[in-house]
Structure formats: C-alpha cells, structure tokens
Amino acid sequence: MFRVHVRHRVKPLLLACVAGIALASSPSAAQQVDSNKLLEVMVRKGLVTREEADAMIAEASVAAPRASIAPVPVGGVAADGTQTIPYVPQVVRDQIKQELRTELGSQAQAEGWAKPGEVPEWTKRITVSGDIRARMDAMLFDRNNYTDFVNWGAINEGGGADINPGSPGFVNLPYLNTRQNRTAMRLRARLGVAARIDDRVTAELRIATGNDRSPVSTNQTLGQVGEFGKYQLWLDRAAIHLTPVKGVGVELGRFANPFWSSTLMFDEDLNFDGISASAKLKLNDTFGVFGTAGFFPMFNTSLNFGSRDVPGGFSSRDRYLTAGQFGVDIRPTARLRTRFAGGYFRFEHVQGELSAPCAFNQDVCDTDAMRPMFQQFGNTHMALRNNIPNPAVPESLSPDVQYFGLASKFELLSLRGEVDYGLTDRLSLRLEGDYLRNLGFNRGQVAALAQNNFAPIVGGVGGQYDGGNTGWQARLSVGHLGRGLPQGDQTINKGDWNAFAGYRRLESDAMLDAFADSDFGLGGTNMKGWFAGGSYGIAHNTAFGLRWLSANEIAGPPLSVDHLMVDLTTRF
Question: Which of 57, 82, 111 is the last residue of a domain?
C-alpha cells in the first residue's frame, strides 16, 4: 500500500528529471546515457511503462544531434573497475525527499502511527487493571452449637421440600454444618478494562473468578472441582459511565456499588445492576455535599412463568431496588475530615406472599417466583404455597412441597458517619459508625408467618419469635488508609500498614441477608460480635493481610463461628 501511494506522487518528478537531462540544449553523451539508464531503471521498477520510456528516448534523439554526443562509459562497472552512476540533480532529490516526508507524515497522522519512543494514541485511552488474591480460610465452630439450622437457600435453589413427615416423598430438610471446622485455600482473580471514549464517556468491562453466581463473593475454592479441574470466569462488571457536566456521573449496566456504605449493609464485592446518578459539589474550601440515586433491577420474571400449568402464565413478580443517599463532607482543617450521610433504600416485592390454592400435583404455584434466587443466612422465612391436599389419600399422607420466601418487607433507613484525622500526610486515624433500621418490618405480621428465628426453649420458657430490624457497627482504623480514596484505589508502597478493630450487631431483618457481608459468621444477618485485622505492604502494590471475625447468633439457638482469613494480595 505504501509503495503504490509513493509511486503516484514521485513519478511526475522523475519524469521531469529525465526529461530535463535528455532535452538539455547541449546534452553531453554522459547525460544522454544517464537518462537512458534511469529510464530503464524506472521501467523495471514499474514507475513508467515501456511505451513512455521509448517515446522519451525517441524525443531526446530528435532534439539532440548525435554528433554532439561524445562517447562515454555506459553506466555500471567498467573492465578497469570504474563505476558510473546515473546522475539525479540535487534539486530533484530534495523535491522527492520533501514529497516523501509530506506523504508519510499525512499517513502517520491519519492512521495514528507512533513517534519513536511513544505508544499509539489509542492506547492512551485504555486502562487495564486487575488483582490476584491468595487466601487461607478457616471457619471454626463451637462444639456446643445447635445442629438443626435449616438451609433455606438449598431448598429454594432446588425443587422445593416436602415438609409433611407422613408423605411418601418426605425427606429430611437440608441443614447447615455448624460443628465441623472447615479450612480451604481460596483464590480471587479480577481483570478489568476501562476505555475513555471521549471526555464524557467511559466504558468498563471486568471479569472475575467465583465458585458460583453469588453476588457477594468472587472467591474460588482451590480443589473445589477435584483433580486440578479448571475454573469458571464470570462477567463481574459491564457499564457505561457518563459525565454530562463536571461533578456529575451517570452509570448504566453493571457497576460498582455507587453508595457510600460499609459491609454492614453491602458486601465489598457486591456490584449493582441498573442505572445510578451521583453528584459532588464543593461549596467552599471546607464544605461540600454529595448524593446518589438509582434504580436497580434484582429479579425479572421469566417470560413463560407458570404457563405450563395455567394457559397464559402467572402475573409478573419482578423485584427491584430504588434508593437515594445524601451526605455532607466537612474539612475544617487540612488534617481533619468528617463525612455524614443518610439514605433510604426501598426493596420492592421482596416480601413473600401466600399463593392462591395450588393443587398437590401442580408444578408451579403463582408465588413461587417470590422465593429469593440467592440468599445467605439470617432473614425470617415464611411458606409460600397454599397446597391443596390430594383427595385420594388421607391428608396426613398428602405431599406438601414448599418454597420459602422472606416474611418481612424491607424499607431501610441508613445513617453513616466518619471522622478522619491525618497524623501525617499518609498516616491517618479513622473512626466510622453505621446504623440501619428496617422501617418496613412489622413484628406482629412477621411473627405470625415465621418459620425460624425463635428463641430457644429453656426450662419450658421461650419459643417466641425473636427476630429484629436494626443493626449498627463501630470501627476504629489507623495507618495508611488512602484518605479520600475508595477502598482498593490507593497505591500500596512497601512498608505501608494499617490495623483496625470493631464491633457489629445486625439483627435478622435489618437488611436483606443476600447483600450483607459474606465473611462475618456464615454470611448475612442475625449475627453480632467483634472483628479485627490489618495489612502490611511487602512490595509495591503487594500486601499481606490478616482478619479475625468472631460472630454469635442473635435470635435462635446457640451458634458461634470464628473466621480467620490470611491474605496475600497483589494488583496492577
């Protein structure tokens, strides 16, 4: 392609050069031979045709008398070693050089060629990042823990459970392991690409490991599939980020948690589906405001939901979150920073409903879609199906296959505060506090439906519903904390360190257990206890970390779980 472009540009100059030599008023024999030789070269190179060359030679022969041409050596190497080189005037060579420079410069600019020592322009708009974390994970259970904790998630993810002990299809419900310690090696790997389309548009894509489709963990347990089998990668993020005006951001797709929150409410690995808009406004040197609002689909009803049993199917049971948060950022001095925020989070259609009468042999009942598609542990559950017994057998023998949904509504008030004092330019002391209250919780209604979270019976006393709707957490941190930066964004230098300690209490229905911290206790809600840990930078962007979480169940029989995590993390 390059040769073709240059040929068309240079050919007129070469022809002019040859013609100038051949048609000079008194050309020497050397000039005549030089022109002929140059034309032959041009023919071989495909710069002129044979017909064009012959025509110019003939024209030169007529214009210049043969008597004036003195014998000269033909171009090339003579017998005595003399070499004759066809002559091209300097002015023509300069013109060719300039023409080539202009041609190549235009092509380089159009195609984005790199200058020596530089990368192409498009690469400057692409950012690649990622991290790898290796973890030793130990879950340590108290030997006095109660054993019959129902695994509601296993029931809902399967084909339901027949809860009638007299039914031929009855089997024991799936229970949780609460007494046998477990250790594992885990791996987390994430790779992300961010492309700046222009000053107002950015696209983000990230893939990550994970045992399953859990929204709150990208951990992959080593050895899970056996005999060094390969693992899956999941689409962790895929989003378009817009900046319509300075200080305002809009996100669409699947993106990081847009709210300022802690793991009391949302696990640190949780990403959001939907659309959000955030804004920051600095009013003066010491005071600013910020806020976020969004709409987030959580579950979309299958197109053919229920159509196998009912022509036309059942009505939609879509679930979604609408939320807003507003906060203030106050910096009275260069070293002191305080932030406070309040938020309202309304989860629509997450509360279960009892179905319409449902035949004993019916595959799908109209509220089956109201069971959680993913859940951890802690929320109060209710039976969803209003099953009609089989009239052909006694009711005590009729199957009662059930799914279980959430007994409470969830409309959350969230309060969060932080005081950060800079001991040095990079060393900080930070105190954080969080408070949650589920305003949609109605104790009387939930207690009438509850299948779990009852106080243990001791000496004939107890057995009443014991769930709750509030949660709080306090945490003190010191060290290199990356002041003002989101977690994971600050650079880690060798020798950087931090340490933290705190206490948490999160009652059964203060928050959807699906989204809460996946590491504290068994993950989810209805747990209280202490946590502590720290990290140390052993190299650039590489850190060794340690965490100890000690949790005890709030409502229900005794359950105590200690969780130890030892991490080595590197990122790029």
Answer: 111
Q: State the residue range of the domain holding 455.
A: 123-571
With respect to residue 117, please indicate whether it lies within any of the assigned structural domains. no
Residues in the chain: 572
CB 195 within 8 A of CB 125: yes
* Whether residue 497 sits in one domain with residue 407: yes
368 in helix, strand or coil?
helix
pLDDT of 508-543, one tens digit each?
Answer: 999 999 999 999 999 999 999 999 999 999 999 999
What number is the average pLDDT over the span 484-490? Answer: 64
C-alpha to C-alpha distance for 531 and 541, rounded to whole angstroms: 25
**Co-location of 220 and 83 in the same domain:** no
Tell me the whole-structure pTM to 2 decimals.
0.79
User: For the chain, how far is it from start to end, CA to CA, in angstroms?
Assistant: 39
Residues 65 and 173 in one domain: no
Query: Quick one: 438 and 535 in the same domain?
Result: yes
Which residue has 């030892």 as its token pair?
Answer: 566
Tell the residue number behind the tokens 């027949």, with chain if given. Answer: 162
Decide: helix, strand or coil at residue 156: helix
CATH number for 274: 2.40.160.180
Q: How far is residue 508's CA from residue 469's CA, in Å, rounded to a whole number?
A: 7
25 is written with which tokens? 């008023």
pLDDT in tens, 236-292: 999 999 999 999 999 999 999 999 999 999 999 999 999 999 999 999 999 999 999
3-state secondary structure of 255: strand
Average pLDDT of the chain?
A: 87
- Give the mean model confidence (pLDDT) for residues 353-381: 93
11 Rama sector, left if φ>0, alpha if ψ -120 to 50, beta otherwise: alpha
User: Which helix (H) or strand (E) element contains residue 42?
Assistant: helix 29-44
Residue 116 placed within a domain: no
Residue 423 tokens read as: 């001991």
